């Protein structure tokens, strides 16, 4: 029984290879997570367990997909950067995006109980995902800065908002109080009304999370002359740094190295 | 603190709306499921529990995404057909594919224990997903026929192969025996050597699974004159039919109705 | 001297095959033709010679590219419809559009002198071009109707506008007079003020131009018994019909025949 | 009379903006120019008039489209490089390609008589055109090197081939003689058999043609103190240089300057 009579339908499939010499960013974003976080009673403005669950998923991603060189996460969103020269599935968008989002989702559900042993999943968490190509390392840095600035703006606002609400205001009133305030005003408000120094809040809330390969030199043994024999060990690492300034990147120049 | 300095990076995002007046097919496919099924000791050639798990995921999909009008699954693959006129997320491919594959994955992991209470997930199951546009109902039917013919060819081969292996042949020998055989030869082999009538094997193996909305007329009550008051009830239904011939489609003309 | 070191740059080329089973429309549109027609003193509101030049270019297109089954032109724009099943250059957009627009342009310049022997080209006429895929004959008809309605609306407006200007009004005043008028008002205005019956104006202005293959049965000779021997002759034909209603299409069912 | 009923057909048009921060290359290529050059008796292996006509078209392109920063032509092909930051027609491929190819074609036909006063156009010359995006200046240089290497390989082969043919060999025999020869062999053949030093042949044949903006400093007048008042004059210039090595690019660093 030949299949050929119907095989013409394959011709409708589209080639969607992404252009070479571009970093590929896959950004995953929780779908209806506003409701999902309400239904699962996430803490406000930040639920540390939920963030740690997102982070462990991202760590799994870097362990499973070796061409991901960096990931940055905030709230229910995570960006994964595939290295410029990746040939993963021939750079086909129809592979990179679904595989990333599906693997992430799978780990999220599997690890849920580890992070929320007291809560059962009430409905399936799921994520959308988009792919974007960036032609230069410099623009990838700007992309990451864009996400981290967003993290800062949202977190500062949400911190104020929930402080006000917890202090007795209605959500409506809290919103009104914050209308038109700039960053400095919000810091003042936190300090004056609640004695909170924004800059002392946990970095995971203020800076989001970075996942990357740390290259560690470690002494394996001593050689016959008693000198240390060293080895480079690669370790997927989570941190909460400033990635807008150059410091982190100067210390990790290999992460976004441009091809010659 | 304005975000605008970095916001230019959004310009790299691509508009990927799918063309109007086309049926949209999203096909999900297990990634490395050969290994996944081995690691979880799925029965050969077909593991009914694994198929039922796939089917329950597909049912969840139709319940959750109302614009999916039909789904067809075989082995670790499932095709979902969105209706011609769907405006779901403005027909953006970057939404339809990741959301479908992520939701499916999420349900798969959540329901795993229900179907395999005796087996723990050893590693995350995950799926790829592609989108294809078909401009006419007739071609969607050909697409489905293509998948069902594939199901038949693979299942018949695998049934023979595993019968031979279970009867004592090596996998190598089984493969050799089947080289060059046509459909009829395989049916003969099954009947002669193993007393198996292929056509009597469970339809779920031979035909794959269809998920769709069945419209059932049911009597709600009797009216004052004693006549039945009827109501149309919609029910997501799983079946294992021939979808190559016209019978099923004639009985369910509303599923792939073309827009006027 | 091997070229291979640099050949990687070919990988940046994109596959742009258009989807099968869609009619392909290439629409050509004069670029800066407002200025071009002013510089070459085209008659207002319609320059018959300019329209005839456009039409002769379209005729050349149908003679040169056999997969074009219909063309519709109005003003400085022309739409060419490639048949649903065309395999012309494997349906690659990067071939169909540039070749169409380039061939059209080439003929336009070559034939200019034939239509405007008294005018020299002052600067190069040129056209843009876009490609659109339509999945059903019915939608192609709607596309053509869209263009012909546009032709009607513009021509009626322009006819009034230039009548008013030629009668002594300024362009500003003419514009004011027409603000808010509907189709019927404009017909009244033409009749009352200028004694013009709009429906009697040349069809080429009111209806635009259609170019297509007319199949003519002609008698070649008489056979031995004196009966006529007939032959089907195909002839590229220009006409100015209504293509919104069904009449023309009923008489020429072969033009937009859908594949089975 | 509203047009809205049909306007839905516009939804089938596709957004095709090219990604930011990429150089855009539009490459134009003569269609069926093998036949076109035979029909118009172009000289072999190179027709200098035909090349000069191509070059004048390219010059017109740079004069007309100010965002083209460089053009490179060989035989019946020309590549136009739009600057990295061009916003010409919002970087829409459906504008850049057709407009480029149409304008080029228009000038080609208009200027034909200037270059071939003795020959009439027998049929319309036309060109295809494709667009390619390159994310870095370095890759644009490799693209240009790819084309110039191609020019060299083809020209050397064709020079030998036509020398052999003109010396009495059949085309078949000439082809045989050249089979398997490398660059050095061909130079030897030209020198030994025909006394031709390949490197002394006109650069336009060996190197192709570059069109670019030369920035010239010129003295406008003397000021009151008798010192020269200088001005930067921009001039579209044609040259036949090596563009594989760094010399030309070092002298014209502004042409492919990368955005900061």
TrEMBL record, chains A, B, C, D:
Top EC category: transferase
E.C. numbers: 2.7.7.79
UniProt KW keywords: Nucleotidyltransferase, Transferase
Keyword Nucleotidyltransferase: yes
Listed name of the protein: tRNA(His) guanylyltransferase protein
Domain of life from the UniProt record: Eukaryota
